Amino acid sequence: MKRRILRLILFLAMSIFDDVYAKEFVVSESSDNVPGSLRAAIDGINASSDVDNVITFATPTVTVSSALPTLVNPVMFVVPASGVSVVGSGLINGTALFAASESSLGGLVNGMVVSASGGSKIAAIKNATGAVHISGDMAAALTTTTTSSWYSYGIHAGDGSITVDGNLSGSITATAKTNYAYGLRAVGAATIGGDLSGTIAVTAGTGYRAYGISSDNATTIGGSLSGAITAVAGSYSAYGIKASALYVGTDISGAVTSTAGTYDACGLTLGGSLTVGGDISGTISASALDGDKAYAIKTKSAISIGGEVSGTLTATASGSDAAGLYCFDSSIHGATSSDPARISGSINAVSSGASAAVMAWTEMNLYVTGTLYAEGASAYAIRSGMFNGTGGFTDNTTERVDTVVLASGAVLTGGVYLGDGDDTLMLSGTADIQSVPSLDGGTGDDRLVFSGWSGSFSDAMQGWEHLDVGSGSSLGMDALGSFSGEVSVLEGAVLRPGAAGGRDRIAGSLLNLGLIELRDGNAHGVLTVDGSYTGGGVVGMDVGAGSADLLSVSGAVSGTTTLLLSIAPSVTELAAAEPSLLIHTDTAAAADAFVVQDATDYGPYVAGVMVVAEATGSADWYYGVSGLHDDALTAQALMPVIAGPLEDFVPRFSDRKAYGGSSGVMPGFGGGWTRAGESWSRTVLSGDAGTLTDGTSRFVQLGWDLWYALGAKSYRGAGVFGGTGTQSASVVSTGGRPAGGVEGTNYSGGIYAFLVRPRSYRLEVAAVFGYHELSLNYEMSSPEHLATGSRMVSAEGELQLGLGEGLALSPRLQAVWRHVDGFGLAPLSTGPLMVEDEDGLIGLAGLGLTLNTDCPGWYLVAEATVRVDGSPTNAVRYPLPAVTLSTEAEAVLWGGSLTVGNRAGGMLDPVYWLKAGALGSAGSMESYRLSLEAGVKVPF
Q1: Which of 52, 114, 173, 924 is deepest in the core (most CB within 10 A)?
Q2: In a domain, 132, yes or no
Q3: Which segment of the chain is annotated as a signal peptide (predicted)?
């Protein structure tokens, strides 16, 4: 009796409590259909007119035996820290554990576990006639399981949308024994205001249709998709998210995984567009284990990615039709259509039939630095079009523009096909297309651009009307013979031969603003251009001795191209060979269409292009050595100009030849003397740099017999002297072309000695030192000035063979050793050169006939002379090309002289003489020397 009274008091107390605190309902009983149960709390909320109702769980477990009443008034849930588990088992078909009106649910809090199981058509939360709105976060764990048949829902809006105002951070698990498992199923839209950071896992055990999120209208995730969505169908149709469109505010950084036991698996499948505000940095995968149709992302409308695809998209089908990123009725791009969709991660599509890593029906704007991998019977890393449903593809024949950049880091496996329209594909940096069997621009006016990319044009590159080899690129010409469009080599780009010394061909036209590089160490390469050629850039070519790389153009030629030549032979070998054919055109072209600017055009040689125009309108450009620079001719003639008049510096006294007269009369006295002279010469040099030099020289000397001794039958003496002079010469080529000239001043001085026995012999020796200041007037370069020194030793002997009174025969011999210091020059046209030292040993022989009167009196000497130069070679060395040019003058000159003078009669009785001479080469007289000398000596 007492126990019954106590229970009655407790029940009344609780009733009073509920009336006082109408907003809060406490679930204190774990069983169903009793006071304090969850069902009683829901009945109380439905009876309440308050909009701020709370259900507080005071028990860790709640068991529900049948579907709970539909919540019609708002409610929030409060659970203990240890959590609460609401379990409904054995529910009848078509029931929901929580049935709710649109605005009845608040947040489903963390620690709240809701599990519902039954035969079929089981939902954890459902509004059968309208929307489901969770005004806070969805942090609970929802689990539904059908034990006999179809339809398992986590949250189901039967005739409206599903909205979670906050984050979906909890978990939703829906398992159907056969078909139809949904995590979120909305007839309208599905909206998560914050992040989807929780997990959604759905399984259609033996059947089909496992959808993580399914909305007939758009699905919106205001924040990021950082959680995990898993969809598994025992048969077909496993979708992570299926909606008319999907909008994700920031990143997709989580994992979306779909697996179909047979066919049709999609990570994201959208009847409209996909818009991602940030990156796709997570993983999205789809697997059709025993059939066709696996798509990581598949949309009808545009795919717009504000950030990058930096994660991994993978689609695998055992049958056909696998795609990683696929828009079957629209475009793929970045934040706007003018922005590229950036792909830095990995997109993979594997099937046994048709596969495409990235595919769109209309425009694609892509910037790829990641990996695109496709495997299958017909596999494409990038493709325009869509699957045809029979293991192949359907092309869009409507013109539209694809823009694809494969940049550094991009690695493609599978083909590339851009379809109709004026498409552009750029290969940049280290983009790897080694595993691309076909890089096809499709139809339209398509452009393949190489930018900072090194590789070769291959047979795989088809369907392009324009090839742009851009700055920093180096492209091999391997298969350009099959390219009939326009090749443009832009500034800073290089087009290389396909093989060393090979024969390359461009079937189309060629615009060259960069470098066509035929230089590979083999002077036999050929590039043939079937179309037109427009210059403005450079062509690098190897040149051998009589052979060279060849550029042959069939079409029109315009612009000016610079030829950079790599010369294999030495310059002298090149000079000895026939000119090499560099350019051939089938049509007429301007003479300056191809010009040489080459580092091998140095030293003494004039190397350049010679144009030969044919009567048929064709033209050929040859390269070779056409001769020597005029400045080189001047330099080659300079040493002979300096050395030629040196013999005039030797003080030889004509009065010593006159030894006739009365017996015992001594003919000479010591004293001071002066002499002056002028010569006119022509020197012909033959050899490497033959020239003809016409020159004049003048001199004046003063001397003094510093020591003089007179013996009984002879006299001897020695003296010193000094003098100065000028010289000038003009240099012309052997063909008569002026090459330059020389003007100079010289200074000389030295000592001499003599021993004379009248009517018997005379001996004279002299040592002469010279200093020469010269100005070189080049034909093509600025004048140069130089100074050099010379040294000379002369020894002469003469016999007197009397023929009668006043008549004598005088044979003589003279030997002269001379040395002129070498010197360096630097004409602009030839570069630095060195005129080598000149050492010469010259012999002169004369046979004179002397006629004189008594002393004092006049004398006359007529002499026949031969001059032999023992070393007529003249060398000029060019250090940079390591070339030495040598020329030779005439070794033997013949001629004579005529001298007239008087004899001294005593002290201070002046002696005068005048001498005229001529020497010339035998026969032709091409080289000659004419001289005139006058002197006076005053004995004292």
Answers
A1: 114
A2: yes
A3: 1-22
